[in-house]
Every structure is written in C-alpha cells, then in structure tokens.
Specification:
The protein is of the alpha/beta class. It is about 40% helix and about 20% strand. It has two domains: about 120 residues, Rossmann fold; about 140 residues, 3-Layer(aba) Sandwich (Rossmann fold), CATH 3.40.50.300. A five-stranded parallel β-sheet has the order 2-1-3-4-5, with helices on both faces. Strands 6-13-10-7 form a four-stranded parallel β-sheet. β1, α1 and β2 form a beta-alpha-beta unit. The two termini are about 15 Å apart.
Length: about 290
C-alpha cells in the first residue's frame, strides 16, 4: 500500500485529502507544517508527499528545497490556494512533480497522485538499473548516501553487524535501499572474498523455490534433465541474500529454517545431506 505524507496547516484540507486518499486505499500520514514534515521525512520513507506552499514556520518551497538538498528520492505534489504560474514554475524547477490549486478537483487530484506514484516507482527502477550497470562496469559498490540521523544509524548498524556471523533481516518499503545495505554487510564481513548470491523470492513460483534454493538431482521431477546446484551451495562460505523473503511460502520458510539450524541441505530428489557454510541476509517490505 503506497504511503503518502500530506502537509498542510489547514486541518480541513488535511482531513479532506485523507478521506479521499484512504478511500482509494492509500496509507496517509499528516504534518501540520514544514518542520513536522521534515521530521517525518527523516524518520520514515514515503512514496509521495503532498505539500502546501503557504505555511507558518517553514513554507512549502523551503521544504521542497530541503528535500532536494538532503537527497530524499520521493515525488512531491505541490498544492496552494494562492497559486500563480510563477509559483508553479518555481516549484517545478526545485523538483516538484506537479502543482495543483486548492480546493483540488477530485479527478485531477487522483490522476496526478497515481501518475506521481508511477513516476516515483519508475525512478526507483531506473536507479537500480544504473546501480547494477555501475557495479558491473566498475566493480565499485555505491555508498549509502545521506547524513540524516536515520541514515547514520543504518551505517553504524552495518559497521557493527557486518563483522559478525549474525543472520540479518532488513525491513523497509520498496526503494529504500535494502539490497544496498545487504551488499555492504557482505562487503564488510569476513566473507567479502567469497560469493554473495542473490535470490528474489517474489519472482520465483512457489513450486520451484525449493529447487532454486537447494538444487535438484537429475530426474527428480518432470523437466529435471540434469543435476542442478542450488543457491545455498553456490553461496558456500559466502552470503546468501534472500530478497522479499515475506513472499516465500511457509513450507519453503520451514525448510530454510531447518538449514539454518543444521547447516545442511538436501537437494530435491536427493538422498544425502550436504553441509553448507552460509550466512543468510534477508529483506522484506512486509511486517513479519
């Protein structure tokens, strides 16, 4: 469910926007001024910000500048009851996705919100592709960017946890950098010279996940024309990154748990246990 931060000093506007957006199944949080909005952005990840221009303390244009300066990758939809072409142009130059006058037209608001969310998701995918290309071409691991209290806490946690053998669960919304954190944990661990094998659990059909993780023997099922080494064996002495583990079936989760307890896997159709030395790092956008 996409999360939207509504920032406006008028309670009636906030209430109206909340009712409209929640009816459309969006998760809505409110901020009454620019200061509260920036505090919320530094503590939480949002898919969209709806931001009033005229507010006490810190106005919307200043908040928009701060969002750009501090590197928050979130689309911003500006709203104002005193809108002018100059204000709309200026906000767009500062990075706003669009500008809507108050009181907002319902259909235009919802269309613009959905377009902004799609735009934000596309930006996330583009950044991931650029990151993958950069890593492939240069071999360099991109840094975790940001100096907010939350980002510093993430970096400190990586520094503390990475050298240990502790298994790690990384939680957060889509696009917040869970995969990058997992890569830094591996890079800063004693296993850095060994492989880091990634599995997107959400992209693998439930009937194939066990074969993907544990491998299979030739003839173990229809289509198994040759032996296959699973991800656990591929990650031996390295790190196995289970992305979107919340989408893994319960039966597969139970088998992964047994591997973690016994450090042994058995290929599908196999008769012998195989010892594996793997550190598991998992990520999810769900509340497990």
């Amino acid at each position: 469910m996409p999360s939207i931060l509504v920032v406006d000093d008028e309670a009636s506007i906030r209430r109206t926007l909340r009712e409209i957006l929640e009816y459309e199944d969006f998760d809505v949080e409110e901020a009454v001024d620019g200061e509260e909005a920036l505090s919320a952005l530094r503590e939480n990840a949002y898919d969209l910000v709806i931001l009033d221009v005229k507010m006490p303390k810190i106005d919307g244009m200043e908040v928009l500048e701060t969002i750009a300066d501090e590197g928050y990758e979130v689309p911003v939809l500006m709203i104002s009851g005193h809108g002018t072409i100059e204000t709309a142009v200026e906000s767009t130059k500062l990075g706003a996705y669009d500008f809507i006058e108050k009181p907002p037209d319902l259909n235009r608001l919802l269309v613009t919100v959905r377009n902004a969310l799609d735009h934000g998701q596309l930006e996330v995918e583009n950044r991931r592709m650029r990151q993958a290309i950069t890593e492939q071409n240069t071999g360099d691991l991109p840094p975790i960017i940001g100096e907010s209290d939350v980002i510093r806490e993430v970096k400190d946690t990586v520094e503390r946890v990475a050298p240990t053998e502790a298994r790690v669960l990384i939680s957060g919304e889509n696009g917040t950098g869970k995969e990058l954190v997992a890569k830094w944990i591996h890079y800063k661990s004693a296993r850095a010279e060994e492989p880091m094998v990634e599995v997107n659990c959400a992209a693998i059909p439930s009937e194939l996940i066990e074969s993907e993780l544990f491998g299979h023997e030739k003839g173990s099922f229809t289509g198994a024309t040759q032996q296959r080494i699973g991800k656990f064996e591929q990650a031996h002495e390295g790190t196995l990154f289970l992305d979107e583990i919340g989408d893994m079936s319960l039966s597969a989760q139970a088998k992964v748990l047994r591997v973690l307890e016994e450090d042994e896997i058995e290929r599908v159709g196999g008769e012998h246990s195989i010892s594996v030395d793997v550190r598991v790092v998992a990520a999810t956008n769900k509340d497990l």
